[in-house]
Amino acid sequence: MTDQALAAAPLRGLHFLVYTPQKSSTIADALGKADYSYFFVMQHFAPLLRRFGEVTVVSDPTAEVARIRARGDTPLLLLFMPPHKVPAGLPCPALPVFAWEYTDIPDEAWNGEARSDWRRVLREAGGGITHSAFAADAIRRAMGRDFAIGSLPAPIWDRYSRLVERKPGDAVQRPWTLRFDGGLLDSHALSLDADGKPRAPVGGAQSATLSGVVYTAVLNPLDGRKNWGDIITAFVWALGEEAQATLLLKLVHSDLAQGCGPILDRLAELPPHRCRIVVAQGYLSDAAYETMIAGTSYVVNAATGEGQCLPLMEFMSAGTPAIAPDHTAMQEYVSAANSFVLRSSDEWTQWPHDGRGVLRCFTLRVSWDSLREAFGTSFTLAMQDPARYRAMGEAASEALRAYCSEAIVSRSLERFLARWRRRRRLLGWYDRLRLLGSRYAEWRPSAVPLRSSLRDAVGLQAWRFITAPLRPVRRLAKLIRARLKALR
Amino acid sequence: MRILAFCPAALGTEPERARSRHVYRTVLEAFLPLLRELGETIVVRDAQAEVPALQREAQVRGERCLLLCFADPDQIPRGLPCPALSVLLGPFDVLGDSARPGETAVDWRAALAPHGAALALSSAARAVVRTVMGDAFPVQPLAVPLFERFAAGLPARSEPPRGSRRVAVEGRIFDSRDYDFEPERVHCRTPLERYCRRTWSGAREELRFDFAHAETEHLGGFYEPEEWGSWSRIREPWVMLPFPLSGSVKLTLCAAGYGRNANRTIAVEIGGVRRELTLWGRFEELCVSFDLPRPAHLIQFRGIDTDEIPGVGDHRSMGIGLRWMALEGAGCTAELPAPPAPLQEQTVDGVVYVSMDADLSDAEDPIKVWREVVKAFCCAFRDTPDAVLVLHVAHIRPCFFAELHTVLHKAGKIAARILVLHGELDEGRRRALIDASTYYVCAARHEALCLPFKEVLSRGVPALAPEHVYRAELPDADAAVQMRYVAESPGWPVPEWRGARKATRHRADFESVVQCFESSYRIAKEDPSAYARLCRASRESQARSSTAALVRKQLEALLVQGSAAP
Fold first, then answer.
1. Less crowded by CB within 10 Å, the N or C end of chain B?
2. pLDDT class of B566 with cuts at 50, 70, 90
3. Which residue of B has its CA nearest to A113?
4. Best mutation site among A36, A358, A360, A372 for testing chain B: the one with the most B CBs within 10 Å?
């Protein structure tokens, strides 16, 4: 089957090859390191792809794909990785699936690496899949309005909405226990050494019992964009006197010392407070993760940008109201109906993987003040208005259903694939036309273009008279040519 | 009534203290004529020694006596029998990084509580006193009577200055037009004669590249200096020496190679002569010798690998780390560059933004948020050649210019121009700078009393200022260009004191600063009536609040209250 044949095949019955550099056997160690979340996104997409055809997970995007192609199959390769890491010269049609949370995509090459210019990679692929309308807009701004970019969030709602039943209707949680393997910090029980410095936590089987109004943030502490310092201070500044308020930071990082170290230092430097901060580092089992979601009153995010934010989507699908900004991907599901919306504003910044550090795009910095306000008002609401709290929880799950339920995402995927194939077909025809054109140019005996030789033969006045009725047709042809050029 | 005006005399060694005392003294000088009208006023330098006798004298004569302290709370004399009041400037260090902030607060309470009240020159001072003393403690606002001094006899401004204007400073001027900043290349266009400020005898000279040393400003294409030294950023970084080299030169580097640059041989070039040396993965002293046919002052590194190392979380393009470099040799006597004139001058035109008297010596909590202002200026005027930012800095920390290079390198090629005037301005040059400016930029973090800001407002120069400063100075000027500031936590470590949780500081909101630059530029170019309105509003705000007559009335009532207090 040729590439053209793939474009013409019915939508069902495709063969997808999926690839991500992370392997399931190494993911627990890779937590918090570069691009670890691509693995989770792939895990969420694989079941959905199975609805459209066969799915094979490959461990090598070139050799293995070439073998599959040699059998006469033309699969579609989905690469869960940022575009600059997509290898050149893949043996079959391939689309990158990637997250993006800045206003502009990389549109220049650096370090002598032509593929750091994402436009080049995306043009080669002829399309791509990202997870938010915000990212899709940024890509279309760089690639042209007609570029085939799909905006598909990970379809996680169906799985996590099942937890709605396990959630108590009340924001004030009865005591529940989080059990996991890893490191634990508790601001109520920091152990100090002889110099008054806090002792580093020791890894092992841990348990912490939480109650009251529980705020949870799931984040990688080494990712500066997540802004955990502001979350801690805003929480203590707003709710320092409230013994019923607990902030749970679930760290997504595999290394105990690296993950907890910076937070421990900061905790030790806080002014006196009655509220409680618990930090959990380590991999949670599915059951523990679900217990944590069920026992959380509010999920917190104060990031400068999110490609989609799986943890926030998971908690909100399960009916947890949020404290979060409504920028980047979150603008599609965070609203005043389901969240305490944080204010944010533009800040000039660099592309995250650009070692030169030059300022090329904008990110959205959250206002600390609004974070502090949100902690205060959400706590009051939790204590005083259970009906409104329940309504916010319901609105959260509903907003996420409309954003990332399997039904919604599968419809978007179908539309995207159809569009991408239409475009591919169009480009195929365009290529054939171009081939025809070049053959004609080779064949034409004279170097003088046909039109000008005819014009010279009849004279300019007569030529204008004869061709006047053809002008609108020519204009139309020009328009079509321009459109085809834009497609390229 | 007898008024004893106290202002601590001895200037401390800490620059911070010296500056705040300098401002207190200026404030006292502004108040003295008024105080003299209100009663017999004696300036006291040593309160413990002088006050008791002076008070007894007054008592004998049946006069009331009041001690008026122009000092930060920790400088206020204690245990004197005389009724006292403090005039406070703010902001204070109580929430900063002093060693025992909790104790500072206790200390303050002991100093201020006997006074029964305080006078605040800024809303920041008022807020901090309230935080420490509680909301019930009376803190009265007081304006500084400076309008006549700043505005006397000068015509009111009503349109932006046009044509070429000269700005000058006794010190040095950094001009962004002397540099080309591109992502992978930095070039300094200043010729040898202008860059070199002195000659070289050939004796060993050591240049250190950690953040405590000003030599970092001679680095090109490096990251911001760190505690140990500086990492290079581009493939071909350089060091531009402030003196020319010539003849035989021995160069010693304390350097290390990062990643693939460990065990890598790179080239060092001076004046067209090329030598090779091998970097190691740890810091080592490396030595190369040159024989230079003609004077040169640029040490150029070549052959550094800046490519990203796959799998490493740090994406920075580090290549060579430099701790220090030393030069020894025959010296350069052939061509002596003329010593730079102490007075440096530049011509500016277009829409000129000026900020004066910035104090950038404190790295941890810069009062002026210069980085945000420079970054926002670059962002707003990337394609606007006739926008100029003139930043006058009185005090800097050693690596300020290295940090400025980094900010400008990140911003890249911009059409606008940035001048940094480093040094002292005398009265005439100060006036010329104000006259040259289209707008003044006040980028204070706190609502502290900002004398240059009051000065430019009195002169009718419109300003870009944070909302909170505007609220304090221009309560009803709706034609003002206001920058949005947002509260943030006061940074780490936070004092171990329960009241600390009320404290916040402010940062400039980048988006809003960019918008302020853009809209003010539009007004200056296209909307003369709006500009005239801004000028009028600026001047009137000061005419309303800071004239001598007005402050006299305010002060009179406060002093009567104060001296009546037990």
1. C
2. very low
3. B307
4. A358
pLDDT in tens, A92-144: 889 999 999 999 999 999 888 899 999 999 998 989 999 999 999 999 999 99
Number of H helices, E strands in chain B: 14, 26
A141-148, long-range: CB < 8 A, 24+ apart? A141/A104, A142/A104, A142/A105, A142/A107, A142/A118, A143/A119, A144/A486, A144/A487, A145/A486, A146/A423, A146/A486, A146/A487, A147/A122, A148/A416, A148/A419, A148/A420, A148/A423
Residue B337 pLDDT greater than 80, yes or no = no
Mention every residue, 6+ apart, whose C-beta is less than 8 A from residue B138. Answer: B116, B117, B118
In contact, A132 and A153? CB cutoff 8 Å: yes
Query: What residues of chain A lie within 8 A of the CB of B315, using their CB?
Result: 352-355
Give the nearest partner residue to B493 out of A222, A269, A346, using CB atoms: A269
A113/B498 CB distance under 8 A: no
* Interface predicted TM-score (ipTM) over 0.85: no
Token output for A66: 């070439």
Strand (E) positions, A187-316? 204-219, 245-251, 276-281, 298-300
Residue (of B74, B63, B70) closest to B84 by Cα position = B70
* A26 pLDDT tier (thresholds 50, 70, 90): low
Distance from C-alpha of B521 to C-alpha of B509, rounded to nearest angstrom: 18
Residue B99: what pLDDT? 39
DSSP conformation class of A329: G
Of A18-32, B147-161, B278-292, B390-404, the one with minimum mean pLDDT is A18-32
Query: Are B245 and B200 spatial neighbours (Cβ–Cβ below 8 Å)?
Result: yes
pTM value? 0.86
Asked if the Cβ–Cβ distance from B498 to A350 is below 8 Å, we say no
Taking an 8 Å cut-off on Cβ atoms, the answer to whether A110 and B233 are in contact is no
Nearest-10 Cα torsion for B312, B318, B324, B330: 140
Residue A210: is its pLDDT beyond 90?
A: yes
In angstroms, the separation between the Cα of residue B412 and the nearest Cα of chain A is 7
d(CA A328, CA A133): 8
Q: How far is B424 from chain A (nearest CA, A)?
A: 33
Name every residue in A having a CB less than 8 A away from some CB of B.
33-34, 110-113, 222, 229-230, 233-234, 236-237, 240, 266, 269-273, 345-348, 350, 352-359, 365, 367-369, 372
Inter-chain residue contact A113 with B307, CB threshold 8 Å: yes
